[in-house]
Predict the structure.
Amino acid sequence: MAEKIDLQEIEVWDGNYAATQAMRQAQIDVVAAYPITPSTPIVEGYASFMADGYIDGEFVMVESEHAAMSGCVAAAAAGGRVATATSSQGFALMVEVLYQASGMRLPIVLNVANRALAAPLNVRGDHSDMYLGRDSGWVQMDAFNSQEVYDMNLCAFRVGEHPDIRLPVMVHQDGFVTSHTAQNVCPLSDDIAYNFIGEYKPMDDLLDFSRPVTHGAQTEEDWHYEHKARQHKALMDARPVIESVFAEFEKVSGRKYKRVESYMTEDAEVIIVALGSTVESARLAAKQLRDEEGIKAGVVGPRVIRPFPFDAIRDALENCKAIGAMDRSCPGGALGMLFNEVSAAVYATANRPLVTNYIYGLGGRDLAIVDIKAIFRELKANADAGKITTQIQQFIGLRGPKLGFFETRGGK
Amino acid sequence: MVEIRWHSRAGQGAVTGAKGLGDVVSTTGKQVQAFALYGSAKRGAAMQAYNRIDDEQIINHEKFMLPDFVLVIDPALAFTDNITDNDKSTTKYIITTHLRKDELISQIPALQDKSERVFALDCMQISLDTIGRAVPNAPMLGAFVKISGMFELDYFLDRMKKVLSKFPQKIIDSNMQAITRAYNEVK
């Protein structure tokens, strides 16, 4: 029987350690992992806990991230609670198996310390890997700080393992900015955390010999479409489940989460939509601008990226005048993902706010508070003019000449 | 908000120092943040670590800061790093050096109009004498406690013992000696 750890009411943890502690408390059966910066300390710490007697379970050392996720798929299909962690190139190598995990409806939890994708090789944070996984059929939850990494991990097991959902879940955090930044974290005790997650209930497990099942069977045009449609429905049905898990989590922790986190949006004229730690920095910038310049600024941060919170985003944004959608991933010849999805959500409103796209922070480029304030001021200019006054997409924090794309037609 | 920038070489313990300081600060009811700019840095490469301390939750995630304290734990970096970067008129400098404070300042032009805000001690020698290895982070914490006035020395030592509790008693004791000596020697 694994030993427990007496945690203090307030710990100082970085995002990686917060993930490791939550994984320890979840009493996982199998972790199959191949370490990669900046997520390495998650599985390294987990292995230390195991060596020190704090974990009953297995740690499978494998030869690649493809094998790591394959091991997770096998262990989950066998009927175990399973989790791992990765970043960047490791995530990219996992992609094939990510689709297998979601297609087989295996509730694996994957911690992703978000990092840029090569080339050029770069170990620092951006959202390229997060965006790469967005069609993989996983639930994707986003933490803005290390406390939320801990909290989202506990919720992730509950959401993924819910009998109506049975899907794998990613918990995203910003590489280095969250993964290696220590901040105050209030953890739950081992017992309260485990009781919240609950005992693992296998479903269609391979090791149930009284009821043989097949995972990962071949289906062609006869059944493939029905399987994928059902999988998508399960992902969409995760929306109310996530809300109920968040509501239960509030009861044990006092911390309240929503599928979309809104900050000072009630009367906001201009709103930034962003992901990760940028949500918090943008809140600081919005508060300062309200105090210093009277700009009615607000911030919207999707807590759940998949299933996309179309409804909640629309509710949060429909009454503002101008929106800046901030994408921390090279858009590859298009507008950024957040721009496209936010635009789609507000298109169906009577007010139809102006939406512009800001690319920033690639490869760990610092996003300063002054940069965010400059975006808010630009959005305010758009709101006052009643039209977009810049190109639709702009790169900010970039050295060299100003770079932007996509011209407006009559400011729309 | 108090902001602190550590100048260090990878392996000298700036990250551990920043996190240890964060651990102690959190026990006083304050919010802390400790992070570093490294990544693929090699042992010995110049790097920087940072602390933010505030009464409210810290939601600022920019790397940029105007430091209130600059802690230099490698003697050569005082000469080669831009330690006065984003300096304020109140920024205090604590620098490890084998030189006397006036000798040090005379050799670093950027410090010459800031001499009343510069404090010096030899963290390397203190750690060699007490811990037996060149780990200048512990003595720097002792110096910071003195210069910042943020804690009573006894309170800090008591909390630091808890942070180090997983280590053998001998290591805890030598770290306490290092912190105490630095507290008394910095000037």
Q: What stands out?
A: Chain B touches chain A through 22 residues (CB under 8 Å). Chain B is about 40% helix and 20% strand. Chain B has one domain: 2-185.
